[in-house]
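Handoff note, outgoing to incoming analyst
You'll be picking up this chain. Sequence as last confirmed:
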Amino acid sequence: MMPALLARSERPDVTALVSVATFTDPRLTAGIDADKNPTQAVAHWMRRDIVRGVFAPLERLKVEQLTQFYGVGHSPVREAILLVSARGLIEHEHNKGYRVAGMSLADYNDLIDIYQRTYQLALQMAVERGGEAWEERVVLALHRSLKVSKVMTDGDPEARELWQQAYKSLHEEILSGCGSPILMGVVGNLGDRAERYVNLHADLATDRARDSHAEHRVIVEAIVSGDADRLHALLDSFFEGGEPMRATIRRNLAELDQPKRGRGSVRSVRGRRPATAA
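Most recent structure output, in case you need it:
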């Protein structure tokens, strides 16, 4: 059942971005049933809405407003907040409640460093432990991703979400060969946080020109051929290819961190997204 969403555009302090809960493509709604498991549904919607910028950095998350926004009861919302908090996307302040996690240059630099290190660790373990079944899953994930067009943040929101899902699903399958649910959880949570910085602070001019499908093809070819050295070289190149975009994120965050601008209100931070190329 589709929740009775409160339009965020009706709130004067919030830029109009649609919630993932309004998306109808079966590829995005599969496994999400607010009637059978409202907590799981709200946790998924809230996580993706925070990553996409529907909820801004430092924005207060009030249970009553969220129940109206998602069209569910108070208990599922409270439980969902706790689940999303465990992913590092929500912070709790004593005597003040919950708010969306803040963003800063220091946090971003730390995040990217650890994300790339844990990704490489998971990849190395996948190469060592993954077998033919893993390779087949990766090939299938690649095939599915190639059917989805790459969409930037200034494109159709639902089409953008489809692309992000296809991208994430392929990389999750590549790393799944590591056989470690703990490591997969760590990398997944860090990946969500990194994606949030892209959505809210990146100038995607350089990423717009990248042929992500072609890059993914050669990575999967290296996996299937068992060429570990080439695979690691390709992944190094893949990460390096995103450095120009990451430089724009760092520049925008540095501007927000300037003392003369102070900590910044939710509105000023929100005003920076989505940043896209002309």
